[in-house]
Design a protein that fits this description.
Blueprint: H1 3-16, H2 22-34, H3 36-58, H4 62-66, H5 69-92, H6 98-105, H7 108-120, H8 125-132, H9 143-174, H10 178-201
Helix pairs in contact: 1-9, 2-3, 2-7, 2-9, 2-10, 3-7, 3-8, 3-9, 5-7, 5-10
């Protein structure tokens, strides 16, 4: 893989990431509600799911996954329902309840799981990666080193975008107190509902 091909790949991925998707809205929501540093767990969950999706694509399982359209639809809508539940609970619940509730709400494991489920709810991303990567892989060189470079580049760029969204939302969240904090919590819930809507509107094949 030449540097020119890699730069072309970077440009293509940057163009695809130019508009926020469900994972970015989830990152905004969790950064507002829990702070940027804790929301990094959400980004880690998203990137973990991406890693497994790219690995499955590299192992040639894209055709098998594409054959199970109905199962993919069920997984997708289960993810939509999960995000809707979390968002509605933030909007109509109360941002209080003592230290025990706050600890539960900000559990790193829970935040990681939210990021993982949101990304994994689009299991046909495996097909997307299987279609994208071959456009930039040379048949004259070893497959796996090129595949590893493309995968690492995608994860690094996706992680950077998530950090960008999260740091901005976290900065705002740290400066809002009192009643405004309660309203900010509900805005975070609205963003999570928005992530569910985006995921629901996204075709299963993308």
């Amino acid at each position: 893989m030449t540097i020119e091909i890699w730069l072309l790949y970077v440009a293509a991925v940057a163009a695809m990431m130019s508009t926020p998707g469900p994972s970015q809205l989830l990152m905004l929501s969790n950064s507002l509600a829990h702070g940027f540093h804790r929301s990094i767990a959400t980004a880690a969950g998203d990137l973990t799911a991406n890693f497994f999706q790219m690995l499955l694509a590299g192992l040639g399982l894209a055709a098998l996954i594409a054959a199970f359209e109905n199962a993919l639809t069920v997984i997708k809508w289960a993810g939509v329902a999960y995000l809707l539940f979390l968002g509605l609970r933030m909007v109509f619940g109360k941002n209080g309840g003592g230290e025990r509730q706050a600890a539960k709400r900000s559990s790193l494991k829970r935040l990681w799981l939210q990021g993982f489920i949101t990304s994994a709810s689009n299991p046909k991303a495996v097909v997307f990666f299987a279609a994208l990567f071959p456009q930039f892989i040379s048949a004259d060189a070893a497959f796996w080193p090129q595949f590893a470079i493309l995968s690492a580049t995608y994860i690094a760029m996706d992680g950077f975008m998530l950090m960008l969204y999260g740091s901005g939302a976290g900065w705002i969240g740290e400066r809002v107190k009192g009643a405004a904090r309660e309203r900010l919590h509900k805005i975070g819930g609205g963003l999570m509902i928005g992530a569910a809507v985006l995921l629901g509107l996204r075709p299963v094949g993308r």
